[in-house]
């Protein structure tokens, strides 16, 4: 009888320890505390993302510098992994595409900001893209966590820049 009670207590202890470890792993994924665990999580589109892909920063100072360019009305800059994504509203609304010299100026502003880890700059004046980036910027200013925007942001970026480097 005594051996049976010890055996039951051991089984209960094993289950409790296992349950605690599963809960800690879930929390690590949610909080991105553990890169080894977070790297196992897949985006909704099925692509495995490394821990850096989960990072999404709003770069308001760089956006302000870009908005100060003569050709630009307003700009939004988001950094994810090694990429900077810039949405611009041009003052010349008749232009269907961003002139190459304006893209070069915008890219130069991002490069001069020396944002950590940024290797590629993507610029667009696509109305859907600029509207979404403006919405995301407003949501962040209102206090919504950037992490909540990551999946949405990735879907928009994948659609606007299908050939982007990850």
UniProtKB/TrEMBL annotation:
<dbReference type="Pfam" id="PF09580">
    <property type="entry name" value="Spore_YhcN_YlaJ"/>
</dbReference>
<protein>
    <submittedName>
        <fullName>Lipoprotein YhcN</fullName>
    </submittedName>
</protein>
<dbReference type="GO" id="GO:0030435">
    <property type="term" value="P:sporulation resulting in formation of a cellular spore"/>
</dbReference>
<keyword id="KW-0732">Signal</keyword>
<dbReference type="InterPro" id="IPR019076">
    <property type="entry name" value="Spore_lipoprot_YhcN/YlaJ-like"/>
</dbReference>
<dbReference type="InterPro" id="IPR014247">
    <property type="entry name" value="Spore_lipoprot_YhcN/YlaJ"/>
</dbReference>
<feature type="signal peptide">
    <location>
        <begin position="1"/>
        <end position="25"/>
    </location>
</feature>
<keyword id="KW-0449">Lipoprotein</keyword>
């Amino acid at each position: 009888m005594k051996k049976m009670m010890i055996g039951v207590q051991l089984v209960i202890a094993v289950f409790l320890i296992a349950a605690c470890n599963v809960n800690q792993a879930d929390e690590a994924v949610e909080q991105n505390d553990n890169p080894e665990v977070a790297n196992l999580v897949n985006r909704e589109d099925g692509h495995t993302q490394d821990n850096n892909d989960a990072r999404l920063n709003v770069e308001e100072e760089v956006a302000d510098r870009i908005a100060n360019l003569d050709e630009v009305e307003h700009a939004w800059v988001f950094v994810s992994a090694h990429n900077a994504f810039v949405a611009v509203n041009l003052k010349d609304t008749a232009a269907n595409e961003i002139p190459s010299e304006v893209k070069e100026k915008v890219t130069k502003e991002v490069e001069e900001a020396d944002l950590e880890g940024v290797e590629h700059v993507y610029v667009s004046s696509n109305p859907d893209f600029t509207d979404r980036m403006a919405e995301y910027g407003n949501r962040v200013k209102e206090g919504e966590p950037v992490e909540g925007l990551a999946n949405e942001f990735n879907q928009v970026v994948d659609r606007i820049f299908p050939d982007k480097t990850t």
